[in-house]
Predict the 3D structure of the following.
Amino acid sequence: MTPFVAEFLGTMVLVLLGGGVCANVALDKTNGNNSGWIVVTMGWAMAVFAGVFIASHGSDAHLNPAVTIGFAMAGKIKGTGLIMQYLAAQFLGAALGAFLVWVQYKDHYAETADGPTKLGTFATAPAIRNPLTNLIGEAIATFLLVFGCFHIAGATVGAESASLGALNGLPVALLVLAIGLSLGGNTGYAINPARDLSPRIMHAILPIPRKGDSDWGYAWVPVVGPILGGIVAALVFKALGA
């Protein structure tokens, strides 16, 4: 697979399985309804594992613009063209994944009356709405993700490339699980601009009954926060000479 196709498919699988577990837990009349936070965090961790495993056959398996930007700043991706391919593939793949979640649970979206519950299967929302602390929370969680990915990938300063790869899919998944369990309770831990923005756009355009608004006033937080966290992770990694 080409890097674009690999990142596209990997991110699609990530959002399909991750958004799918949110839909299974949140929507009415599913077999997994109201099964709780542990199911959600475990589902997202396994979504990361599956996505990284698939994407690793053609790309460095970032599946996340914050990871791509962080790795680019640390000199782990050579060429603006490849960076742009990764970013485009991630946003487009996330959109397709969100669409497929809607297809999978279409009947249950129709059975669910609460609009914010439906939005929560596409995008994140804060438990307590405070843009500054929400932004900081997303940045801290994403810093941990990207900083951890540098070490999981065995990256060293000056290396031409650092791939998360198939063998690194499980430790990345475990890191995401830990982030979700420990740091995800305040914002829902987007930690990935593509994972939040593209599904939010799909929520806005899909014909979901009684869906409410897409909360665009908050939408910038899970985009800017993760990017800031990824940038800081790259700067710290380079400063430490790890």
Notes: The radius of gyration is 17 Å. The CA atoms of residues 125 and 215 lie 8 Å apart. The domain at 3-240 is CATH 1.20.1080.10 (Glycerol uptake facilitator protein).
